[in-house]
Specification:
- With 134 residues, the chain is mostly helical.
- The protein has one domain.
- Helix 2 runs antiparallel to helix 4, helix 2 runs parallel beside helix 5 and helix 6 crosses helix 7.
- The two termini are 27 Å apart.
């Protein structure tokens, strides 16, 4: 690692922690949305069927920006020597936007708010992630 990037190690570690929190939250949201989807449309037969729904069905559209965020973080962390402080800052700002939940906001914000209201675990993960982004 270069001397410039070693000075970024605390920020890189923070980004890793944010990524870990988003992975946990994303999985919990996927599980919750699967359950709700199955209540409306019937049981999803296989994990492959579920994967296809997640990447292509409008029910799961609102979760795709979070999926893409995790991929962006992974790609950046894969090449630590090329990381700039501004990239980490941009991802932290993006993370904050992804955690916006609102009863009356955009459809994705409403769906996220509903998931938080339905699940104490999701609410806890949401609060912990917000706290880590301060």
């Amino acid at each position: 690692m270069t001397s410039i990037n070693s000075s970024l190690e605390p920020e890189i570690q923070r980004l890793r922690e944010v990524r870990h929190g988003f992975l946990r939250l994303h999985k919990a949201l996927l599980d919750a949305e699967r359950e709700t989807y199955e209540q409306h449309f019937g049981k999803i037969q296989t994990n492959g069927d579920f994967f296809q729904l997640v990447i292509s069905h409008e029910w799961f559209d609102w979760l795709r920006p979070m999926s893409q965020f995790i991929v962006q973080v992974d790609e950046l962390l894969d090449d630590k020597d090329a990381i700039a402080a501004s990239q980490i800052d941009d991802l932290i700002q993006q993370a904050k936007k992804l955690l916006k939940a609102s009863e009356e906001g955009a459809p994705a914000e409403q769906r996220y708010d509903q998931a938080i209201q339905r699940s104490p675990d999701i609410a806890f993960m949401h609060a912990a992630l917000l706290n880590s982004l301060k």
